[in-house]
Amino acid sequence: MVSIPEYYEGKNVLLTGATGFLGKVLLEKLLRSCPKVNSVYVLVRQKAGQTSQEQMEEILSSKLFDRLRDENPDFREKIAAINSELTHSKLALSEEDKEVIVDSTNIIFHCAATVQFNENLRDAVQLNVIATQQLILLAQQMKNLEVFMQVSTAYAYCNRKHIDEVVYPPPVDPKKLVDSLEWMDDGDRPNTYIYTKALAEYVVQQEGAKLNVAIVRPSIVGASWKEPFPRWIDNFNGPSGLFIAAGKGILRTMRASNNALADLVPVDVVVNTSLAAAWYSGVNRPRNIMVYNCTTGSTNPFHWGEVEYHVISTFKRNPLEQAFRHHKAPAFLYDIYLRMTGRSPRMMKTITHLHKAMVFLEYFTSNSWVWNTDNVNMLMNQLNPEDKKTSNIDVRQLHWAEYIENCCMGTKKYVLNEEISGLPAARKHFNKLRNIHYGFNTILVILIWHIFIARSQMARNIWYFVVSLCYKFLSYFRASKTMRY
Ligand SMILES: NC(=O)c1ccc[n+]([C@@H]2O[C@H](COP(=O)([O-])OP(=O)(O)OC[C@H]3O[C@@H](n4cnc5c(N)ncnc54)[C@H](OP(=O)(O)O)[C@@H]3O)[C@@H](O)[C@H]2O)c1
């Protein structure tokens, strides 16, 4: 079998979601480890004040691409940024762009999606289901397409406890749901994300039946483990937002079951699995759709209780800058102060927002699933020794304590842009806050007790009893000390 870089040699790859967390890492890795790939078409939607080319320029100039820039300074020539709004009719592609894509695309990676758990159902269906359908229609017109790779989620069938590497029947017929958008109001339905991702899998399986389809299902994607360098992460989504909140002191408790499996998977493992899975399908043309549960729980289990321990211990040693202790009362008072000084209150809003995020995550931090990973293991065994090294997908080697520490330090450095040189000042600030917090709590307890004593005879009796007991103990201690002299 040809190696992974040999397979991608001379190929034209189409990538959606290249401006997102996973898409960026995939683009970097593809260009670095397969330098002879012919071109990569990235479908990017225009944003206010920035063309798709400008957006890509900004991304390609970022630190994530430093290593690639060193190894292959001309890599930008291979990237063609194409304007495309996936939720518009025919993906809003111009006729010329469509022609180029249809004529020359060999491999598609469909990464774009809305990953907000509480996205309204209409928008989630529009992007996660209908846009996928449109992309499949386009794929069917392509003259040289070899593989359609759908990036899904391991939680697409979280209603099951044991999840095999197959596409299960959808929760509802996607066609009926799409039709119902005509009359349905938006409503407020939690976790439309997972619901629509399950529908997308079904759409890909049914409507892409004539294509060579593969699906990669990552669980919760975390910072990079090794590539292009350890610790890289650039978003607040999922647990990284909670880690930051814990580090900043906004979040003091987390709803989770200590023994529930924390199925985190490094972003570079997801990218390597996706590139290898497309390689396998392209070379072997399997008769059935290939599904890969890109997870860690069954091969290298780790639990939420352990995550909590390592996050707290990392941020104790390496506090975040401007951390503040979370207490609703000071937050509330600070908001009043902001209001009085003509600024808009934000503390209570932030805390409420985080608690909402925690409620959404609670389902995942309190339950465990078992994912079958036979296809991932098969894929690993198919890689030649060189590909095994350059496209590592073996999560058995992942050292969790080190990885969680790296996730925390990655959020500090790349999401919050805090430098390691600021650590001594952050530690000093952290200790000061801890003392303020203890002081505040002590005053609060004394105040409450004082009010209690003033109002209740029983409280007074208990208080006198405790004070006289202490006095007796002290007198006894003093007397026994004098006798010894
Ligand atoms: N992150 C995770 O923990 C995780 C876990 C399991 C599976 N996944 C899957 O991995 C894939 C990538 O996720 P991610 O974490 O990288 O998400 P992300 O950072 O939010 O990126 C989403 C990407 O989709 C693009 N996009 C959204 N709406 C679009 C539209 N209307 N037209 C064109 N492009 C649009 C975004 O472009 P803009 O920059 O213009 O917004 C962005 O590039 C998704 O399929 C997701 O379901 C992610």
Please explain how this structure is put together.
By secondary structure, the chain is an alpha/beta fold. It folds into 2 domains: 4-418, Rossmann fold; 426-484, no CATH class. Helix content is 52%, strand content 9%. The protein has 18 helices and 11 strands. The chain has helices at residues 4-8, 21-33, 52-60, 66-71, 95-104, 121-141, 174-180, 192-207, 239-248, 267-284, 304-317, 328-340, 347-366, 374-382, 385-390, 400-415, 423-455, 457-484, and strands at residues 12-16, 39-44, 79-83, 107-110, 147-151, 162-163, 213-218, 220-222, 264-266, 290-294, 370-371. A 7-stranded parallel sheet has the order 3-2-1-4-5-7-10, sandwiched between helices. Helix 9 (239-248) links the parallel strand 8 and strand 9. Helix 6 (121-141) runs parallel beside helix 8 (192-207). The radius of gyration is 27 Å and the shape is elongated. Bound molecules: NADP nicotinamide-adenine-dinucleotide phosphate. Residues 17, 19-23, 45, 85-87, 111-115, 127, 151, 153, 197, 218, 220-221, 235, 237-238 line the site of NADP nicotinamide-adenine-dinucleotide phosphate. It is found in: Peroxisome membrane. Its EC number is 1.2.1.84.
